Amino acid sequence: MQPAVDLARAGLPSRMRRMPQRRAAPWLVTAAVFVALLALLPLAFIMWIAVQTGWETVSALVFRPRVGELLVNTTLLVLLTVPIGIVLSVALAWLTERSDLPGARLWAWLCVAPLAIPAFVHSYAWVTMVPGLHGLWAGVLVSVIAYFPFLYLPISAALRRLDPALEDAAAALGLGPWRVFWRVVLPQLRLAICGGSLLVGLHLLAEYGLYVFIRFDTFTTAIVDQFQSTFNGPAANMLAGVLVTCCFVLLGLEVLVRGEERYARVGSGAARYQQRTNLGRATMPSLALLVVTTLLALGVPFVTIGRWLIAGGAEVWRLDEIGLALGQTLFLSLAGALLATAAAMPMAWISIRAPGPLQRLLEGCNYIVGSLPGVVIALALVTITVRIALPLYQTLFTILVAYALMFLPRALVSLRASIAQAPVELERAASSLGRRPLNALWSTTIRLSAPGAAAGMALVALGIMNELTATQMLAPNGTRTLAMAFWSYSGEIDYASAAPYAFIMVAMSLPLTWLLYVQSKRMAGR
Question: Where can this protein be found (predicted)?
Fold first, then answer.
């Protein structure tokens, strides 16, 4: 019987066999600790500024009517935008994934496409079309149409993976379609809804350009205004501290709402597609919902950009300025993506090859910085360089470090997935043949994880290309990215000259958005 047992063990997948715990190389641990400490720098600096300022000054800066007004504005924005986005995204995901809606695949892509349009371009399009649009409800409208794809993507992916046997069992017990949805389907979407809601909420706290256009004050707009007008370090940093507190409140709420229920089942479930529901008389209203959503989220930006391009004519295509902005944007995006990917590599390797308490602590530090708004990171780096390392103020080094910190989680997630698919035996074989640890790592794991690293770099590059606040505060003199040029012309009410930059940013973002849509389909085996 022993040979049979050995044969059975050999047939088990490698993840099912007990493998000896591998210790991480000291240089990898050192690199991961350094990156984690650097990631905590903005948060630690805000706390240090609060201690240095003193409680009396801090209380005077925090507990004042202006902060209360900003807190009310930000709270109302989140409380109104997130529920509306959830309802809209669940409805659109169900229509495109579970109903016999005509052209469901096309509508599914159109529901993801708004991600290709930066939020401040959405706001620019709406303000130029409806000049009187401003205030809270304007912010809610533009925020919903700009950010609902962050909810739609995980919800639609979750709907594809649900086991239809559970719904069939509920229907067999006499529950109608609506009761099956509320009691069986919706509870299984909780994780997707919580994750998407957290992502939308963090974007609402961090967004700047969108709310400046519609003249709606939030903590981010106030921090940038405070910095640009008076360079008041303590006041701006205390506002940043309140904003960071709001971020942690959102993180805590997401954990509480998510709960600890089990969402997985033993076994792979039924190997069949869910039967699509016949809409019948609801077909036309459903199509109307999708048409209206598409017109608001895609039609308004594209029509507005096209109208201003036509109105401006050939004169707005200043090829020398556009070429310079495009070149600087591509350079900063590529350099920032390379730095973020290189910084994430040690942590990604440790999380897969040598997991443990230290790994979980270091990885948590990297994800914390991803929840901080870019303006907080930029403000911390500005104050540090001005007070401690003035020669680094507004240099290429500082702006690239800011990009690496802001988008580190994007690179880390992609690298983790790709390293997990690289066999550890190859790395061990290279080491046993006499190669040094770094050479063995480079020749095996890093090369095999190159596709995942490239995907992570693309996601980071997209974020850098559309980033505005940190670039404005940290970029060297003379820097003019596509986003900065767009913001400069739109701030001068020269919407025609801003249109080419908006068009180029959207055109560069569309392929990556399509890649995200295709990848979400592949994850569900479609």
Answer: Cell inner membrane; Cell membrane
Same domain as 362, residue 462: yes
With a CB cutoff of 8 Å and minimum separation 6, the contacts of 464 are 332, 333, 336, 337, 403, 407
Tell me the pLDDT tens digit for each residue of 230-283.
665 677 778 888 888 888 888 788 777 766 555 555 444 444 556 777 778 888
What kind and span of H or E run contains 156? helix 149-161
Task: Enter the tokens of residue 226.
Answer: 């405070």
CATH of the domain at 317: 1.10.3720.10
Q: Are 385 and 405 in contact (CB under 8 A)?
A: no
Say if residue 325 is in the same domain as residue 290. Answer: no
Identity of the residue numbered 520: S
- Sign of the alpha-carbon torsion through 59, 60, 61, 64: positive
Write down the pTM of the prediction: 0.79
Q: How far apart are CA 469 and CA 402, in angstroms?
A: 11
- Contact of 234 with 53, CB cutoff 8 Å: yes
Q: 448-477 pLDDT, tens per residue?
A: 666 667 777 877 888 888 888 889 888 888
